[in-house]
Fold this sequence. Notes:
The chain is an alpha+beta fold.
Amino acid sequence: MKKLKTGPIAAPAYYCLNFWKILAALVLVSTLSINLFAQTASESKLIAPGLLRQDFKILKDSLQKLHAGLNTYKTKEQMAELFNNCEAKLNAPMTLTKFYSLVRYLVSGIEDGHTSAFLPPDFNRNLINNVKLFPLIVRFIGSKAYTTCDSEGLAAGTEITAIDAHPINQLRKELFTYIQSDGQSQGGKYAELNNGDSPLLYLYYLVYGEKSAFDIWFKAADGKIENTHIDAKQFKDIACHPTPVPVTQYLKLAYQPGDVAIMTIKSFFNEKLDITRENLTDFLQKSFKELDEKHIKKLIIDLRDNTGGNDGNGALLISYLTAKPFRYYSSIETTTRKFETKDHDQLAIQQPHEDNFKGPVFLLINGKSFSATTDVCGIARQFANVKFIGEETGGGYYGNTSGARTTLYLPNTQIKVNIPLWKYNTAVKPLKYRDRGIIPDYPVTPTITDYIEHKDVQMDYALKLLKQD
């Protein structure tokens, strides 16, 4: 997530849309207005192949012309094969959702987390009010999936082993091909499927269509596999879907016994911080000065669920974590130009802050640590005193494509596609993987029991390690 300036160009705000927030907004709107069309009418309407091919060509041409990171993870030959395979499917009429699922498959295949596609708002409103969906909220952990609350006769934490004819891990792998992420970051895909804008109930509908009921296989308390038949439900009737909680504070500093401080940074995005009347520059200056005055020796920085923000804010945090000058970005480019140092402040050599922290630092990360946050983590990965705890970041280790963007509306389907324009390469050393996020030094994934009981096992693990030192 970035908002940047280069010369006279001001990049637009880059928000990661959360499905649950969208649903809440749509439910509110739809209670105040009449549905614009009925489900039967919208879903039975087929779009002619010629119109679909026209939209696809516009999308393909726009991506090839504008997307600076189109070949970051895929060669030109691989991208050509992906385009051809998708286009070959446009030989018969399709519904809007069928075509949209194809667009999402293409977007996922690009392997860029900032490239995204959305159905028209009217269609989404109708979906929320009329479509019957998979009736369970499920959390995927590794190769398994679990219910998150008591629902449909299944206790919270019940392991789901199959849905209809799909073994659960096979289903997860299939749905992952419709979720965008940087490279092959698994953390980002899990985050989107579990609590992002691509939950199971939504993706299952897009990929397999509307169903009146589902056959579900699950592991009973005695360990035996049992089966149940559950009717589909409208969204309003589905139990325990997450309710978005307004954020009132993004920046916090707290202390633990043993000269340990916990710094929480939930956003690098100035416009979000403005809403809560917070300022990252002031917060960091005050906090690190206080750490020095209190002789704090150990620091935990919580960057979980921080989806990014302004480039300068990320570089500023790094300046407090090193005593040496450093490079932040090695290059920034579009499809038509390469930025120079005068175009972007973070291309110049960055200087450490005088109050830089010299003790051990643990960075907490997860799949929603994305964009500018992953840039921070990539640079911090070079420092010997910094270790990572948690889950793989959603952003790529070597950088991402974001900054300015073009929003494209396909004329015949009105599908909206966001195309990022600036390719960032962070100044990092090569690691084992070329297409993954930040892999934690200490992988810690909450179990389903941890999740249900709201246990912060990643923070607990960090505190335990620091107390051992």
